[in-house]
Protein 1
Amino acid sequence: MLKLLTPHLRVESVLELTLDRLRELGLDSLLLDVDCTLKRYSQNDVEPGVADWIEELRRGGIKLCLVSNGLAGRIGRFAQQFDLPFIARACKPLPFRMTAAVRKMGFRPDRTAMVGDQIFADVLAGRLAGLVSILVRPIRPEEEPWYARLKRGPERLVLRGKEEGGRRKADFRLLTPIRLPPSAFRLPPPSLLTFQPLSGRI
């Protein structure tokens, strides 16, 4: 179980995931969390440098899709700033909508990473979906809702003792995607599972 909560790679910011580094890691598609990953929870604008980072990756052929547990209206308005496809109300850590995003966008699972700031949502969902999971340091987590902040304590316990020279090294021994029987979870109605791309840019 602990391995499901362990990211393959830890970075301080998405800005460390340069085009050259992603190519070195064999990645050409990213599923991106939004709140505390690309921006502060309390603001609509991305952190300095993130807009240029998104554009640089797209020019370099990296395919991007936002995957957030936030509501469609708020995440859609954010995605529109960058003309990015998105999935809202993703129900992470359940992997179903992430695997749907990979399939609908035509991403290769073995060359796709889930990038986010929460172990019990982003990392776990990425692992369950059989993707590379990349954990970033959360941006201003004190601004999150109380129910999100509750998970930060257990996250620190999971990360304790995993530091290797100040940073977690990459570990690309990917898990085989876990095949769950249809009865394992009661899924939302089909109308809530609709993929919500804003454009065909990717």
Protein 2
Amino acid sequence: MIELACDQGTPEWHASRAGVITASMFSTARKFKASGESSETAKNYAFRLAIERISGVPLDEGHETWQMKRGQRLEPEARDHHMQDIGRRVRQVGLVLTDDRKFGASADGAIDNDPEGDGGSEYKCLVSPLELRRIYLDYDYGKFEDQVMGGLWITNKRWWDFCVYCPAMRAVNGHFVRWRVRRDENYIDTMVRDLLAFDNLVEEYRLKLVQRFQGDPAALAEAAALLDPLASGAY
């Protein structure tokens, strides 16, 4: 495991994520068609990562949505509420990578030397009514389960606090809610198998691109049949 101390949202953080299959996108990487083939969404994500592994820089040049910027601004407040809630110090974390740097998680916090074992944390500063309704009324954080289990896998921690911070709910004391999620080895094993298969797809695309633009005729024909953008006469 490699832990990088860069602050989330900084140029260093964005650069460190280039070509990395990140925990927030694990659920996308695991989207399949009924046939078992990767979904178009998963293929698009794999192709983006393939380009990033070639270039070494983010394809979107580190673009951040207003929701991402809002989350980064509110994260210190969420961490403070978390520490008050559990009575333990939460250490800020930048980015955690597997040793081969192919998989990563931007853990929002680490709790070391806890009686229950070392843990981590994820803070969601949600604004979507749909997501908030599912969290507050249905107690359903399933949309983020791959991200949480992914953090547990990469960091090898025993538990993860999934936290939602919504300042608008302060009037009814609902601004901070927390679930403590334990490792599920069966879930993680299944997830890792899917992610390794997805990484093979990323590498397949990367190799096809390298061969395509190095002028290998056989690779060109194969790539054109597989990837519509490369089949265009404009390339």
